[in-house]
Structures are given as C-alpha cells and as structure tokens.
Amino acid sequence: MKINAMLSYGAEEFVQEEILLGEIDCDEVLVKIKAVGICHTDIASTKSIYPFTYPVVLGHEGAGVVERVGSDVKHIIPGDHVVLIYSFCNSCENCLAGKPYICDEFYRLNTTGYSKSHTKKRLTLKNGEEVSNFFGQSSFAEYSIVSQQSLVKIDKDVPLEYLGPLACGIMTGFGSVIEKLKPNGGDSIAVFGCGAVGLSAIIASKIIGCAEIIAIDVNDSKLEFAKKFGATKTINSLKQNLIQEVQNIVSKGVHHVVESTGNPTIIQNALDITRLSGKVVVLSAVKKGLEVSVDFKSIQSERTLMGTIMGSVNPHTFIPRLIDWYKQGKLPLEELITFYKLEEINEAVNDLNEGKIVKAVLTI
Fold first, then answer.
1. What is the pLDDT of residues 122-155, one digit of tens each?
2. Interval 70-128: pLDDT, tens
3. Close Cβ partners of 171 (under 8 Å, ≥ 6 residues apart)
C-alpha cells in the first residue's frame, strides 16, 4: 500500500515521501490517521537518542479512524475512532499488573524500529530500503498499522483532531502530577519547563487544587502561557535568582517539583527548592548514558527523586479521564493546540522550538 509520510534521515528537517506500508497481521489494525501531535520526543529522535536506523517515520501521538482489522481483533471494528498509544507486550509481570508503561519489552518494541514480531520492518522506500517504525505506530503518515492493544477506542462525539496528544505529552504531564506526585489540595508545586508537558502538569495541579503553582522557564513567552493555564507565580531562571524567588513565595520550599526539561544540571536546582520530605519527578526523553550528579545531602533529608515513563498511568483507563476533564472544560485542548497540515511539519517544529506555540498537531 502506497502512503505519504514525513521521513527523518537524522537531520533537522523532515522530508515528505511516498513509501510502502505492508499488510496487517491477524492481531493488528489499519488506521487512517486524521491528526497527530508533535512531541519533544519526536524532535529529539531526529538526533539519534534511540537505537533505530534512519530513515524513520516518527510520530507517536496519532488519532484516526479504523479502516481494516485483522482476523483476531476483538472489540474494534472499521469506522471506530481511536487514539494510538505505545507498544507493550501485554504478557510480562508489569503489563499484567496494569503497568504497560514499564513493560519489560517497552524499549525494544518502541525504539528499535521493528514491528512487534521483531522480524521485519513494515515500512519500505520504493527502492526496497527498510524504514524504521516508531512507538508501534509511526503516525507522521496517512496510515498506520497498530496492534489492537495499542488502541484506545473513543466516543465519536469528541473532536478527533484534538485527541492524539492525550496519548503522550498531555498524559505524561497529567500523570506525573496526579498518579506519581499525588499532591494534596493546598500543596505547593513547581514545574521546570513550560512546554506542552509542563503546561499539562500545571493544568493538572490546578485541577487538584494546589495552592501555589510556580512555573519556571528561561523563555518569557512560555511563562505567559503558564500564567494562562494556571500558574500562580512565574520565574525566569535566566534573569532571576531561582532559590530566592521560590523562598519569597514558599519559605520552606515547595512540596513537589516536576522537571520536564531533560537538562541534568536542573535536577539539583529542583532538589534545592524542595522542602524536607518533598518530591521531585523527572520526565523527559534523553539519550542513554546521560549522567546526573546531585548532592547526597539533598536526598538524605528524605527528599525523593524519581522518574516516570508516560506519566506512570495506564492509557486505557487514564485517557478516558482526560477526555472527561476536557468535556468538563478543565482541560482546554482548543487553547493548547495549533493546527498545521502534515506537509507543514518543519514550520510547526520551528514554531515549537521558538516558543511561539504550545502544542502542534498535524492534520491529514
């Protein structure tokens, strides 16, 4: 099957090409992609942070309509609206415990470029050269083949074009607060990095009822977005004294910190502004081998430093919760998202990098 897709060859710009998509297996589904979000992980993956080979079709925040299903597929039929999520084995101890985000096979299934069977790459160029798959979907394309377990069926009365980012960026930001940090109403929280993930953490903190929500970034335009979506205070850490500014707001330090920049030097800053017994959660796509150095005294005082993958949530149960918050007007997807056509992906990436927009979604 011939499809149009945006390919990465390991350079900054994506290239549009017509490629070939293989046939679905018995437990797979062919999805016509209607919209796909651009995540920081997609941008970072143009720079060899994962072990796949180039070229690759990136994209892992897809949403679309089911076009064809394999013979063993249950509960999903042609015409269903779906959000595409990551791949997982569905048989290891963590998957069976409802924690597919820490599947034993997570990195093999999502970042090596192969399909779930690990025997072939499903995408090829016209000359027969293999193209790597990404996160079990490669949704920067007109069509995607996805394992049935990696689909979340959604109601058709919800605008499909807004929902792809619920599968990664927004889910990760919300989950890091609601499922990982679990603040009480009235707690204080600081968020490093005000991209889509950080802003999602801010929105979640507002929903929970945190008393102080401090947004920290080096880009004033991103800090303005943070104010709009619920930050009670903002700090430009390039222009202001971070420690002093936080102490002026919360004298003993904050209860919780979300670190979404992926900058290892900021980890110590995050611990420094956290009160005794406070918690710091780190979430970002970084290259394997990146080292973090912290002062042991920072964590000896019962501060907790922890990581999360995909917000530590089960997407099959959490994405419906996100949709409920959207329906209630608590998750303003229309205000977070700016739409571009698939072929405008390079313009969208530039706007994201410059902080002009919060979340880019490509429509097809």
1. 899 999 999 999 999 999 999 999 999 999 999 9
2. 999 999 999 999 999 999 999 999 999 999 999 999 999 999 988 766 666 889 999 99
3. 200, 310, 311, 313, 315, 318, 319, 322
Tokens of 75: 């509960």
Question: Of 126, 177, 198, 159, nearest to 313 (Cα)?
Answer: 177
Distance (Å, rounded) from C-alpha 74 to C-alpha 48?
36
Q: What total of structural domains would you count in the chain?
A: 2
Retrieve residue 271's tokens: 């611990």
DSSP character for 108?
Answer: H
**Furthest-apart CA atoms within the chain: distance in Å:** 64
Same domain, 300 and 258: yes
Same domain, yes or no: 227 and 120: no
Tokens of 176: 């890091």
Give the domain extent around 230: 173-309
pTM of the model: 0.94
